[in-house]
Amino acid sequence: MNYTQVLCLGDSITFGSRCKYDRGYPPIFSKMLTEYLGWPHICINAGVSQETSAQITRRAWQYLSNPDIRLLILIAGTNDSKPTVRTPPEIYAENIEQILLMATATETATILCNLPYLIPAGQPTYGVESPELIAKYNQEVERLARKYKITPVVNLYNFFKENPDKLADGVHPNSEGYHSIAQLLFERIIQGTSIPMLSMAKQANQKQDA
């Protein structure tokens, strides 16, 4: 059976913390892709709670060195904004770029997401300066997306800023919020002609019509 492996890499927002059904966005995204493209898509949930971009970078290669991984979804950096961490934006950018270099080396298609809007009052582990750092990290995400020609970035920041009711605690999405992330990623697939899976689906449909 033909199938496609998708790597969902990140922290607790990928893992699915605060999700009522304890699953996050990957299985929802998997279902959307499978139904739309017509063959199984296995979305590997490689989210680890509380990890920073540096920690995520350390374990990225163990996944991306697998030639069966066809697509990378990356959401990383919210924990870098904690007062106990405060990763400088330039160091954050270097961490994200290392992951993008790995994806480039393995010819893995990539969808890059910016960091969701954050309400620090919802979580005591975040400070008043966290939103400012998130904004700076997101500027680096946009810059790297242009550099590696993987635009457009999936804009989680604006979505959750406009829909704060889909945040469970000011940081993590609720179940509806995770479904929305999957939907935003799915829409990115639909519009992304550079994503191999979409072109493969078009070829498959053409063969069926012939």
What percent of residues adopt helix (DSSP H or I)?
40-55%
Summarize the main sheet. Answer: 4 strands, parallel
**What class, by secondary structure content?**
alpha/beta
Instruction: Give me the CATH superfamily.
Output: SGNH hydrolase
Report the count of strand segments: 4
Strand/helix succession: EHHEHEHEHHHH
Shape: globular
Rg from C-alpha positions? Answer: 17 Å
Q: What would the average pLDDT be, to the nearest integer? A: 91
Please report which band the strand proportion falls in: under 5%, 5-15%, 15-25%, 25-35%, 35-45% or over 45%.
5-15%
Uncertain stretches of 5 or more adjacent residues: 199-210
Tell me briefly what this model is.
The chain is 48% helix and 12% strand.
Helix/strand layout:
Blueprint: E1 4-10, H1 12-15, H2 26-37, E2 41-47, H3 53-64, E3 69-75, H4 89-105, E4 109-112, H5 130-147, H6 156-162, H7 175-191, H8 196-209
Overview of this structure, please?
The protein is of the alpha/beta class and 210 residues long. It has a single domain, classed as 3-Layer(aba) Sandwich (Rossmann fold), CATH 3.40.50.1110. 48% of the residues lie in helices and 12% in strands. The protein has helices spanning 12-15, 26-37, 53-64, 89-105, 130-147, 156-162, 175-191, 196-209, and strands spanning 4-10, 41-47, 69-75, 109-112. Strands 2-1-3-4 form a four-stranded parallel β-sheet, with helices on both faces. Helix 2 packs parallel to helix 7 (175-191).
